[in-house]
């Protein structure tokens, strides 16, 4: 079993930056792929970023070049550095874990076995 807890959300003006963190407990996540998803009001939960156990990263096109996902296995944490934020980035952001690692369908919510409770990110214009 794995428990995930997100933190770092808040209110920021367009063009600003925010860093989200995901803390894992229970079984080690060092061999897991880790992902960030987001969900805006009335919308489906959608993929943001994924990092494999070896550090390979993938991003949805709308955040590529602005967001950076990273992990620290010694701390059992996964971060999402968000720069040049836009109002359309406003959403609840969720951390997720996939024990299988290196899956092709990393962009699908059903790929991930464990989820955090989410943290709100609001970007004002």
Keywords:
single chain; 125 residues; mainly beta; seven-stranded mixed beta sheet; four-stranded antiparallel beta sheet; globular
Could you provide a short overview of the structure?
With about 120 residues, the protein is mostly beta strands. It has strands at about 1-5, 10-15, 20-25, 35-40, 45-50, 55-60, 65-70, 75-80, 90-100, 115, 120-125. Strands 2, 4, 5, 6, 9, 10 and 11 form a 7-stranded mixed beta sheet that branches.
Low-confidence stretches: none
Structural class: mainly beta
Q: Termini, distance in Å?
A: 40 Å
The biggest sheet, with number of strands, parallel, antiparallel or mixed sense and barrel status, is: 7 strands, mixed
Rough outline: globular
Helical residue percent band: under 10%
What does this structure look like?
- By secondary structure, this protein is mostly beta strands.
- The chain is built from no helices and eleven strands.
- The chain has strands spanning 2-7, 10-13, 18-26, 33-39, 46-51, 57-59, 67-72, 77-82, 91-98, 114-115, 119-124.
- The mean pLDDT is 97.
Topology overview:
Elements: E1 2-7, E2 10-13, E3 18-26, E4 33-39, E5 46-51, E6 57-59, E7 67-72, E8 77-82, E9 91-98, E10 114-115, E11 119-124
């Amino acid at each position: 079993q794995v428990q995930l807890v997100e933190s770092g959300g808040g209110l920021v003006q367009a063009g600003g930056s925010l860093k989200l963190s995901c803390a894992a407990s229970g079984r080690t996540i060092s061999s897991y792929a880790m992902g960030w998803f987001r969900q805006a009001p009335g919308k489906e939960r959608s993929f943001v970023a994924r990092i494999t156990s070896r550090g390979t990263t993938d991003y949805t096109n709308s955040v590529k070049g602005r967001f950076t996902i990273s992990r620290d296995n010694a701390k059992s944490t996964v971060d999402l550095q968000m720069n040049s934020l836009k109002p359309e980035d406003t959403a609840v952001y969720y951390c997720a874990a996939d024990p299988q690692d290196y899956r092709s369908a990393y962009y699908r919510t059903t790929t991930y076995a464990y989820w955090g409770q989410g943290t709100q990110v609001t970007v004002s214009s």
